[in-house]
Design a protein that fits this description.
By secondary structure, the protein is α/β, with parallel strands linked by helices. The protein has a domain of 148 residues: Beta Polymerase, domain 2 (2-Layer Sandwich). The chain is 28% helix and 17% strand. The chain is built from 6 helices and 7 strands. The strands form 2 sheets. The chain has a 5-stranded mixed beta sheet. Strand 3 and strand 4 form a beta hairpin. It is globular.
Amino acid sequence: MAEQEQSESPAESAANEQSKEPAAGKAQGGAGQPKAERPKVLPGGASSQRPGLPEPAAEAKTSDRERPPPGGIADLFAQALPDVKLEAYQGLDSVIIEVSRDDIPQVMQTAKDDPSLDCKFLRSLFGVDYLEDGLEVVYQLVSLEKGHEVVIKTRLTRDDPQVPSVTSVWQGANWHERETRDMFGIIFEGHPHLVPLLLPEDMTDHFPLRKDSPLAEIEEWQGELLGEETGEGKGETKE
C-alpha cells in the first residue's frame, strides 16, 4: 500500500505538473508569460531608454502640388500684383502663395490695401525649419469682409535668415516677429524693437525650435514620454 501511495501513473504526474503552471504564471505577471520590463523613469520625467524618433515628413514636390481653383484668391493676387512672381497652390484648407523675401513689403501692403483682397487681419506669423533647405516664414492673412483667407510663404537661407518686417503694415506683427526671432533666429529688418520676447535678453545665439538645436530631440522625446506616462501610478500607496 505504501508503494502504491508514493507512486503515480504517467497521466496523474502530467496532471499535477499542469496544475502548477498557472501559479507560476501568476507569479511572473499572468497568462504564463513573463511581464515586459518597463523602462525606468528618471527624475524629471526622463527615461533610461530613448525611443527612436519618427522621420520628418517630406515636403511636397512642386510637381505634386495641386493648382488652386480658377477665379479664387490666387487669381486676385495675380491681378493685383502683375509684376511680382507668385507660386500658388492648394493647401489643406486654404490657398498658399510663395513669394520672394524681397517682395514681402509690396505683397503684404497690397494684400491689406487692395479692395479685391482686403486682407486687413494678420491671423498669425511663424517660422518653419527645413534643415538644409533653409527656413521659412509663414503669414496667415484673413479678410473678414470678403470672407476669404490666404497663406503667404517666403523661404530664407540658413546663412542669411533675414526678411523685411511687416510691422508697418500690421502693428500686431510686432510680437509675432519677436517670438519668431527667439525661436528660429530669423531677423526681421526694420522691426522697431527686435529684442527677445520669450528668452532672456542675453540669449541671442540659441534658437530652441530649430531642428539642429542640441535639445530638439530631447524636447520631442520628453513630450512623447509625458503622453505615455499620463495616468501612471494612480491608486498606488506607499507601504
